[in-house]
Design brief:
Layout (H helix, E strand, L loop, with lengths): L10 E6 L4 E4 L23 E4 L4 E6 L18
Antiparallel strand pairs: 1-4, 2-3
Amino acid sequence: MNKGQRAGDGAIAVDVEEGKSYFWCSCGKSSKQPFCDGSHKGSEFTPIAYKAEESKKLFFCACKQTDNQPFCDGSHNKK
């Protein structure tokens, strides 16, 4: 699968809630970054589901170049 277009140049911190599901935007086109708003329709991209096992702050990837989807791995620092 190809990587999506950059939606930002860093991580987006999100306080996730235990038991709640989150759907990370993999295409980079969503207006609700870092989460999916359906903008991928008609493309090869689909959202990546994540279910929080505990309530805590996580850092979701905004550049869409991460190898650790849906989380930031520092790929935004690579040029």
